[in-house]
Design brief:
9-stranded parallel β-sheet; two-stranded antiparallel ribbon; Glyco_hydro_17_plant; binds 2-acetamido-2-deoxy-beta-D-glucopyranose; glucan endo-1,3-beta-D-glucosidase activity; TIM Barrel; alpha/beta; 14% strand
Length: 365
């Protein structure tokens, strides 16, 4: 009798632990899904509904918008795509200054669509700490964290607790990235970055970074091997500060951010990649910008970020790094060198520039 009881207890415990393992596996499966940036700076792009159809065909797990467009959010309600929306830089100061404005933003852009549309992240502003020239830029910088706090309060008021709040920053926030252990933020943004880290840490959110090994390699193609930038191997690098060995440039850059955060005590803050990618075409002088490199880079990133168990980085092995590829389309209205208009996974007519499997299944070894 007592034996049977113990056995039953054991079974219950086994079932319960299996259940928790299952939950863990599911949440992991969810978070390793690859996202795609849905930039729309083109005058020749397919309709919103066609675009969403394409995202599903490509097996994207998440989509990131640069705004909170109503039509797109409405159409996304018919999908299982996890959605990241953005507060534009111009909206930040208004939201920071008034809970009412924040509540209205959340009502209009989130409550109108949630939960049918699986909005999971609100990113406040885009690369806000990279713009420091005008008074308005500096005002937006100062208003960034207060606006994030307001949006959080608005969400709390309406009882939503499964939407993360973050802000994507660019690598130019870094004073030093090499060796990775020397990673340091620029002194002029420390006043903003520390409260930001505090907010992210306190809300269990992510530090979103736009990270492009392509640009680092293109600046220094003689010193950095192309294979290393493409996650194809190449010479390994050992950081003398930590003894950690690196096999690719992306890990090096990610860990430089990790070490910069750790210098302020925030070594548990999770990193997410809000943008990464490789241009598939460019000016004659932009040698690395070609279709083959773009395909290799994106496939390798997808393979790395969908690996189970997660790969992480040398400084943080095993962690999940949610990743959004830039970008869905070639965008012909982007300014700058020719490569800027060729980051797309798809041509403007919706045909693939090269084959990628965003589910990562094709790259399992
Ligand atoms: C980050 O958050 C954790 C958990 O809430 C807390 O224990 C820790 O002190 C925080 N870190 C910093 C540097 O504030």
């Amino acid at each position: 009798m007592s034996f049977a009881l113990t056995d039953m207890k054991k079974n219950t415990i086994t079932i319960m632990s299996l259940f928790f393992l299952y939950l863990l596996a599911c949440s992991r499966a969810l978070s390793t899904k690859i996202g795609v940036n849905f930039g729309r700076l083109g005058n020749n792009l397919p309709s919103a509904s066609k675009s969403i159809e394409l995202l599903q065909t490509m097996k994207a797990g998440r989509v990131k918008l640069y705004d909170a467009d109503h039509e797109i959010l409405r159409l996304l309600s018919a999908t299982k795509l996890e959605v990241t929306i953005m507060v534009t830089n111009e909206e930040i100061t208004g939201i920071a200054g008034s809970q009412d404005i924040s509540d209205r933003w959340v009502y209009e852009h989130i409550l109108n669509h949630y939960p049918d549309t699986m909005i999971r992240t609100v990113l406040v502003g885009n690369e806000v700490l990279s713009y420091t020239t005008t008074d308005q830029d500096r005002q937006i910088m100062q208003d960034l964290v207060p606006a994030m706090v307001r949006i959080r309060a608005s969400l709390k008021t309406v009882g939503i607790n499964n939407i993360k709040i973050g802000t994507p920053l660019a690598m130019d926030i870094m004073e030093s990235t090499f060796p990775p252990s020397s990673g340091r933020f620029k002194p002029e943004i420390v006043d903003e970055i520390v409260p930001l880290l505090d907010f992210i840490n306190g809300t269990n959110s992510f530090f979103f970074i736009d990270i492009y090994p392509y640009f680092s390699w293109a600046e220094d193609p003689l010193c950095i091997s192309l294979d290393y930038a493409l996650l194809e191997g190449g010479p390994m690098y050992t950081d003398p500060g930590t003894g950690l060995t690196y096999t690719n440039l992306l890990d090096q850059m990610l860990d430089s951010v990790f070490f910069a955060m750790a210098k302020y005590g925030y070594s548990d803050v999770m990193i997410a990649i809000a943008e990464t990618g490789w241009p598939h075409d460019g000016d004659l002088t932009q040698h690395g910008a070609n279709r083959e490199n773009a395909a290799v880079y994106n496939r390798n990133v997808i393979r790395k970020m969908t690996a189970v168990p997660p790969k992480g980085t040398p400084a943080r092995p095993g962690v999940i790094i949610p990743t959004y590829i830039f970008s869905l389309y070639d965008e012909n209205e982007k300014l700058g060198p020719e490569s800027e208009r060729h980051w797309g996974l798809l041509n403007p007519d919706g045909s693939p520039v090269y084959k990628v499997d965003l589910s990562g299944k094709a790259y399992k070894t």
